[in-house]
Amino acid sequence: MDSLIEDIIAREILDSRGNPTVEVEVYLSNGQHARTAVPSGASTGSKEAVELRDGDTLRFGGKGVRQVIQNIEEIIAPDLQDLDVRDQKSIDETMIGLDGTDNKSKLGANAILGVSMACARAAADYCDLPLYAYLGGPGATRLPVPCFNVLNGGVHAHWQGADFQECMLVPYGADSFRESLRWGAEIYHALQALLLEKHLSVGVGDEGGFAPAVDSNHESYDLLVEAIRRAGFEPGKDCGIAIDPASSEFFKDGKYQLRTENRALSSAEMVDYYAEIVRNYPVVLLEDGLAEDDWENWKLLNEKLGSSIELVGDDIFCTNPKIIAQAIEDNIANATLIKLNQIGTVTETIAATRLAQFHGWGAFVSHRSGETTDDFIADLTVALDTGHLKSGAPARGERVAKYNQLLRIEEELGTAASFAGKKAFVRPVRG
Ligand SMILES: C=C(OP(=O)(O)O)C(=O)O
Ligand SMILES: [Mg+2]
């Protein structure tokens, strides 16, 4: 058979932060081959699958992945040889079995994911299908609303900007992906002009958004609303706001430490703080509003805000179906973030997404702060019909690689394509 895995090779490449990461190539018995690369987070959840790094060796300014390369070529490749590349489940289960740990710490989630993604792409190529159609079938025709992280803060700006890590533009009022991308880029440029006018920095953070040293988190929203207006759009009608404070990063000693505002808030006060933001600004999504160690108070957050906006868990759920199942049972949020490398295989990522969707939850596909030009998540988003994704600012190559791929997908789908729009953020209220 032509679709058998013949060989797998891997190499160390650099990611967008200048750190080493893994690139994988899968070769099939018919000579076809496919390539993928693995991203890397900075504000990571403690229950993420383990990204394996070489001891203390600092190479290129970051810890290398030579052991990961060796694990792929010497342990994984021989075992996957002669498996049908279309059998994604067996491929992923074989690697999970080979690893034998709960968190992929033996071979490395970066080893396993690189191979898993490369096999999916090779299988799509073998079937002569675009990746989104291979993974999603003929019903995969809806384009997501892009969420553009145009103001970077927290750890992504080395704490030189706002406390909140991500302030995103959500141009949900457009009637196509292409149009929403144009709106996002125009507002991004209007924001740049506004920052220059206010003598604020237009230097960028890890995800391509500006990282001005604002005096409060509210100032970020004022800037966004003003930029939306200046670009000729109506806040709340054409374009909303999504926030990822990544609050685990500033939750210390049981309090949320707002450095820019020089105060520390309890969980209940933090929930009120968000409620006020939601009252005053066109916010449609709040991710990681509370810390991963603050599970009980997520219930309070969901009671107060779950009926009006999408509440997404990132660090707290880690794309892990077991944790998401518990969260659904406890009714502590209404959406999960979806990051391939938090769980480590394509199969488990699909399972996490489907689980959320089955229960009426949202699934919000995400890049990592350390990225490559691999555009896998663009296809994944359409395949799984998640309706929204975030891939940073509409600037910088590794971020726009995903948005540009979505343009191609929309073009290829032609009249079959639709755009998710604002409905993507509306979650049914659960009892
Ligand atoms: C994309 C994010 O950042 P990182 O990749 O650093 O976890 C996030 O927190 O949602
Ligand atoms: Mg996050």
UniProtKB/TrEMBL annotation:
From the Swiss-Prot or TrEMBL record, what is one GO molecular function term?
phosphopyruvate hydratase activity
UniProt keyword Ribonucleoprotein present: no
Q: Which Enzyme Commission number(s) are listed?
A: 4.2.1.11
Provide the active-site residues from the annotation: 207 (proton donor), 339 (proton acceptor)
- Binding positions for substrate? 156, 166, 287, 314, 366-369, 390
Query: How is the cofactor bound, as the UniProt entry phrases it?
Result: Mg(2+) is required for catalysis and for stabilizing the dimer. Binds a second Mg(2+) ion via substrate during catalysis.
Its needed co-factors are: Mg(2+)
Name where it's found.
Cytoplasm; Secreted; Cell surface
| Main localization, broad class | cytoplasm
Q: Which reaction does it catalyse?
A: (2R)-2-phosphoglycerate = phosphoenolpyruvate + H2O
Q: Which GO terms describe its biological process?
A: glycolytic process
Q: Which residues take part in binding (2R)-2-phosphoglycerate?
A: 165, 339, 368-369, 390
Q: Which pathway does this chain act in? A: Carbohydrate degradation; glycolysis; pyruvate from D-glyceraldehyde 3-phosphate: step 4/5
Q: Which SUPFAM superfamilies match?
A: Enolase C-terminal domain-like, Enolase N-terminal domain-like
- The residue ranges of the Enolase N-terminal domain are 5-135
Q: Name one GO cellular component term.
A: cell surface
What keywords would UniProt list here?
Answer: Cytoplasm, Glycolysis, Lyase, Magnesium, Metal-binding, Pyruvate, Secreted
Q: Which family does it belong to?
A: Belongs to the enolase family.
PANTHER family for this protein: ENOLASE (PTHR11902)
Main function: Catalyzes the reversible conversion of 2-phosphoglycerate (2-PG) into phosphoenolpyruvate (PEP). It is essential for the degradation of carbohydrates via glycolysis.
Q: Which HAMAP family match?
A: Enolase
* The protein's name in its UniProt record: Enolase
| Organism of provenance | Acidithiobacillus thiooxidans
Which gene name does the record give?
eno
